[in-house]
Each structure stands twice: as structure tokens, then as C-alpha cells.
Amino acid sequence: MLVAFRISAVCLGLSLSLASSAQQKPSPLQPFLKEDAPILVLEHVRVIDGTGSAAQENMRIDIANGKITSVESTAAHRTYPDGAKVLDLTGKTIIPGLVGMHEHLFYPMPQRPQGGVGFYGESPDSAPRLYLAGGVTTARTGGSLDPYTDLELKKAIDAGQLPGPRLDVTGPYLEGKGTFALQMHQLADADDAARMVDYWSAEGVTSFKAYNYLTADELKTAIDHAHAHGIKITGHLCSIGFRQAAALGIDNLEHGIAVDTEFFPGRKPDECPGFSAVETYIEKTLDVASPEVLAMIQDLVAHHVAITSTLAVLETFGANRPPMERENAALKTLAPEAAKEYLAQRSLLAEHAASSKVLEKEMRFEREFVSAGGLLMAGCDPTGYGGVVPGFGDQRNIELLVEAGFTPVESIRIATLNGATYLGKEASIGSIAPGEAADLVVLDGNPADKIENIEKVDIVFKEGTGFDPAKLIQSVSGLVGIR
Ligand SMILES: [Zn+2]
What we know:
The chain is an alpha/beta fold. It contains 16 helices and 19 strands. Strands 1, 2, 3, 4, 5, 6, 17, 18 and 19 form a 9-stranded mixed sheet that branches. Zinc ion binds next to loops.
């Protein structure tokens, strides 16, 4: 069934593209654009530059051929460059394009039958458009289930054939024996890990992710092989604790203390103690301010291990989170079956979930990690039981960083410059300065006053091309969960 369907879909794709190439073709991005002048002056605008500095009022940003050429006060009254289109952005704020560090190009598929398997559908249409609409101009995927599709998507986006963020594609999950996900290969041993990393590096992935059940031996081999290819590796681990992973040389850990198993009493090497047991332990017993946890944080910082904040997915496991008024816009993008299932699960949790101490503890951990000098980044992680939607989830994560106690400009830095720094691209993306790519998000209102303004996206510039978020969202309305 699946094979037959795929063949017919491929044939259909071919005939459609033959038909369209016979006609005169405008840019395939045209239907999603708001501004595409090659030389632009954005003036009378508030700038939050991504470095954590305070907002600057009444600024002017000049853009030429995809790059920022100057950032200065509008009051400097310089003449406009020849042929420039000038936009008066009074009342609006510009922040750097978000650098999403835990993104996926898949979403949980609805309508799992009784006895059916957990399964995630690739979202080649909805995910890239919704990330871009939400202001995400660079996305590292945090594990891939359909890596060839992700790699081809990246090529099509880079070639200007499809709208979407610049992608840093992660290889297939490096997972051990015992996983819940049929879509993940289970490593046989360390040699298998080496083969997988070498193969996918050659295929063009630029990142790796280790998952719950792999052994320390397999992780060590994966890290060494990834590093030999100049590629960083992150992890969402269960069989291996944070300090052990840091000692093995991992570059990044996902989700934070909410998934760290190292303090679980009686844990055995290379064994995942079980997710609900760990969750209960963290919720009821673990003290984030204890000397053990603070020493672990020091250790991560000393080993330069970054942490990715994924508060937006974490909060969905608590009761009535996010508040419904924060979820409504994302809900409209879900396929009807996916929306129904999300809402049903949400009501169940509202009845049974305790007020989530895990979220509170994770927030505290992220503050402690940053005050110890750690590099905290942010991402959306559109998984869980659904409802966390690309782009919307990235915005929500920034709101939750503010709830966690970071200032709005610090939270924006976590979601922009910090990710760029981890990727080694801080000279070209992640902040607003001359010479950098013109990846800019224009917001109505001021997120430094009210962080919810991060949702009021007016234009998203990616390398100077201005996308219309409303058109991007409208084009995939009702499709999340099916394509
Ligand atoms: Zn994930």
C-alpha cells in the first residue's frame, strides 16, 4: 500500500512540474512575499539586536542584496541609497530572525488505531512555512525521521523553490535497543553507530542527535565519528546522565534537567530507568538548587555543553497549558483529526495532571545554567501529544523564557544569537549588524514591554526577501498532522 501510494505520488509530482515548466514561470515564492525590493531602507523602527542589549528607538536599517549594510539612528539623516524602497516602520520592532535549535519536520500522526504504533508524519509543506511565518529563519532539526526528505527540502529551500528557513539537517536518530519508535533504527553496537554517522555525514547532514537508549560505548563512537566530520552532536538521553555525556564529549543536551536521569536513585549504567519513574522522581524529589545539581551545571559549562530549552512542549504536559487564547492561532493550522485528538488529550490532562512541578524546576534549572555561564538556546519540538506547532511553538518558548525569569531581550538572545553561536555562524546570522544576512522579523508593538508581541509578526525577512506570515499560514491551514 505504502509503496504503491508513493509511486503514484511521485508520478503525479513529475507530471505537475512538467506542466508548469511549459508556462512562463514567476518565482515560486511570489505567492508568499510581502516585500522583495533588492535595496530597502527600514526606518523609524525600534531595534532589539539579539545581543541582549536594550531596545534602541527610532533606528534605521539599510539592506542591499540580502545583507544588512548599515544600522544607525534614523535621526542621522543620511541620504537613501539609489533605488531604495523606504518603509516607515513607526511603532514596530525589528528582532533578528529566530534560530530554532530543536525543530522537527514531522508531527505526530492522528488516528492511531487500538494497538497501533506511535508514528510521525513528515510535514514537508506545513513545517517549513510555519517556521518561517513564526520568524524562524534558521532551523536545526533535532532528529530526523525522514532524512532524505529533510535534505531535499533543504536543497529546494536554498534554491528558492520552496519557502522555509535555512536548515541545519540532523541525521536519523542514533537510538539504542528498546525504543518506542518503529521509525528509528536500533543500533546493534558501536560499529553500527560509526557506520550510521559516516554514511549520513557523506549524504550531507550537518548535525546528529543521540536518543534515549543508546549505550555509552555507542555514544562515544558516534561523538568521535561526528567530530571527525566536523559535525556537532546533541542528545536527548535516558540511558546516560548529563555529566557522563559531557565527559564523553557531547556538544549539546536537549530539554534540560526535565529529562536528566543521573540523579535517579539506583540507576544502572547504560540503562534507561523508565520515563514515568524519572518524571515522578524529578517532580517529587529532585532539588534543582542542591549542590549536586549545581555541580552538574558547572561541569556542563566547563565542558562547553549547550542546553536547548524546549519549555513549549514541556508545558503541554501540565493542566490547561498553554492557556487556550495562546493556542487558538496554532489550532487553526491543525488537520481536523489532529485538532480533535489534541483537544481530547488536553482535557484529559486538565482533569488528571497535577500542577506541573517539572516545568517549574526546568525553568529554575535554565536560569541557574545561564547564570553559571552556560549557553542556553531554544526550540519548538513539535511532538508530545500534539498542539505544539512549528513557529507558534518557537514564539511560545520565548514567552515561557520570560515566565522563567529572563528579561525579554535576554529571552530573544537565547532564541537568536545563542543558537547562531552554537552553530558557529554568529558572524552572519543571529543578531542585527552591518555585514550580516538580512534575517529580520518585523513585529507590531514592542516585545520588550509585552513579550506576547512576539506573536504579532508583520514581515519576516530572510536574506532580505520579505515573507508575509499571514499568506504562509493561510496556505497550510488545516494541514498540520497530515502533510
Ligand atoms: Zn524533539
